[in-house]
Amino acid sequence: MTDTTKSTATQSERPIGITILGISFIVVAILMSIAAAMIGTFMAMLGSYSSMMNNMISAMGGSFVVFIGILAGIEFTIAYALFSGKSWGRITVIVLSIVDFLIHCATLVIGNLFAIPHIVLDVIVFFYMWKPSVVSYFDREKSKLV
Description:
The protein is mainly alpha-helical. The chain has six helices and no strands. Helix 3 (54-84) crosses helix 4 (87-109).
């Protein structure tokens, strides 16, 4: 095996951390889909008990279900991008980890000590996405075009 085939073989292999991140995005998306179904069912049952509040409860429940469904779709899309090596998936994960980091730092300032593990995880994900093996995995699609 020559050096060029070795580098091509190592570039095409998905890093284990990307697989773990992709699976976690899929798990969260499935949980969000289940939550949307449960909220929709609960709101439909709750609306049938009160004739005065029926329309408001149905509208509120429907908007929650649509919002959570959109978020679940975004999670599935990010997981697809991670598994297929799309460079925008890496950028999206980096941006989301920065936003999540800032939000958890703000909640830590007001006294939420449960934000500390989230901050640590966001920092780990942020720096992991800049590892050379991860960058080369996401850049392999660009090298195929050249």
